[in-house]
Specification:
This protein is an all-alpha fold. 84% of the residues lie in helices and 0% in strands.
């Protein structure tokens, strides 16, 4: 179990670093005039960008699994570049067309002024899809070689660069969109450059190369289901925002949801690292792995409760981030509901790990689609009955993840049953 922990904790710090950057972004936005509006606009814009970028979130797993020979590495790198270009183009089309603007306005139920602000962000965010893909690809290569400490250090560099850019931009009086997107773009470029250096000087290729006859079709069969999972994850928030924005005080509720969701992602990211856990270590010693995951999940929930029930939440959101009081009060209520999230995420990722090791990821896509469908149906019903508010929106998000988990759990059980039957047949 000690080996598991040595592998796991740097990845957890990596996820923490990425989420802390978002917290700093929220803190900077809260200090601009009309803070509630700024937080809401950024929430809508970044969620839209995330819909396209999320398909690349599993690029690290892709390079970890397949980039294990010179041929496979070249093919995987080209595949990642092509996929990022394909995903970037529709986002740029939305950002640069009147039809795209009308689509954004209709989807979120916002007026022309807020729509124009969202579009301003999307124009700048589009090229970041390419940079994010390269960052994920290189992280997967380093994780494959168990260089998780380097991944953590590079994420630290990313965080420092983002914070520095935010402070410089805010002090100089630049527009919020330029400050937030510009600082992230520079940080991504710095991280990618350093990751390339680490890969060139520290990365050791597998001693027993695999996938020497890899094809683009094989990569596509793995990537499409897992990318669908990422897209569905990113779509979860916009679906909720689309309904919440139409409730009384919808802008305030979205701002509060943004603040609470982003902080809870710190703990979700820690749970999400278990995907790498299974891909790297395999499915042997499964009982010990399961026990380790349960301990981590309990610890994450405990930390969330400590934050919620202690003066820490007030200090972070009020004193440190300067979140307006109205949004802060609602965010605390949302965060209380989200304390259930780590257990659900770890439960889901336990089965995701099984499916990725087996290279049977189609059920992950089905589960992701069912999650979004569940969220849409529940939000629609709650909105129609006049019940939808910020806390119910958070609960609906969790129930969507539960529905997804049940699907992947059923598929893993089916695969295990099939394997047992095949073994019994061979013995006969």
């Amino acid at each position: 179990m000690l080996a598991y922990w040595r592998f796991y904790w740097p990845l957890t710090l990596t996820g923490l670093g990425m989420v802390l950057a978002v917290q700093v972004q929220n803190g900077v936005l809260a200090r601009f005039p009309n803070a509630i509006t700024e937080l809401a606009v950024f929430a809508l814009a970044y969620s839209t960008y995330g819909f396209f970028n999320a398909a690349l979130n599993f690029t690290a797993q892709l390079s970890n699994v397949y980039a294990r020979s010179p041929h496979a590495t070249r093919l995987t790198r080209r595949f990642v570049l092509g996929a990022s270009v394909v995903l970037m183009m529709p986002l740029l089309l939305i950002a640069h067309s009147d039809t795209g603007a009308r689509l954004i306005g209709a989807a979120y139920g916002i007026d022309r002024e807020l729509t124009a602000r969202v579009i301003e962000y999307l124009i700048l965010l589009g090229p970041l899809v390419l940079l994010s893909a390269q960052r994920f690809y290189l992280n997967g290569m380093l994780i494959q070689a168990q260089l998780t400490g380097w991944v953590t250090m590079l994420t630290g560099v990313f965080l420092v660069t983002v914070v520095s850019g935010l402070l410089v931009g805010f002090t100089a009086g630049f527009k919020p969109a330029y400050v937030l997107v510009g600082s992230e773009a520079v940080a991504l470029l710095v991280q990618i450059g350093l990751a390339q250096w680490v890969k060139a000087h520290r990365y050791q290729p597998p001693t027993d190369p695999e996938h020497r006859s890899l094809t683009y079709m094989e990569l596509l069969r793995f990537f499409v289901p897992v990318s669908t999972t990422g897209v569905m994850f990113a779509l979860s928030r916009p679906v909720l925002y689309a309904f919440v924005s139409r409730t009384p005080n919808g802008v305030l509720a979205i701002a509060a949801l943004r603040v609470a969701f982003d902080l809870s992602v710190i703990f979700q990211q820690a749970a999400n690292q278990f995907r790498h856990f299974f891909v790297t270590f395999g499915l042997n010693d499964i009982a010990r792995k399961r026990n380790f995951m349960v301990l981590v999940g309990a610890g994450l929930t405990a930390l969330m409760l400590v934050y919620l029930l202690s003066p820490l939440s007030r200090w972070v959101w009020q004193d440190l981030m300067a979140i307006p009081d109205d949004a802060r009060r609602l965010a605390i209520e949302v965060f209380g509901v989200l304390c259930l999230m780590p257990a659900v995420i770890i439960w889901r990722n336990y089965y995701h790990g099984h499916l990725m090791v087996a290279r049977r990821t189609s059920a992950m896509a089905v589960g992701g689609v069912l999650r979004v469908v569940s969220i849409f149906v529940l939000a629609y019903v709650a909105s129609s009955l006049g019940w939808l508010d910020h806390t119910l929106a958070a609960l609906i998000l969790i129930l969507g993840f539960v529905a997804e988990t049940l699907v992947v759990a059923a598929e893993v059980a089916r695969q295990k049953g099939q394997a047992l039957r095949e073994n019994a047949t061979r013995k006969m």
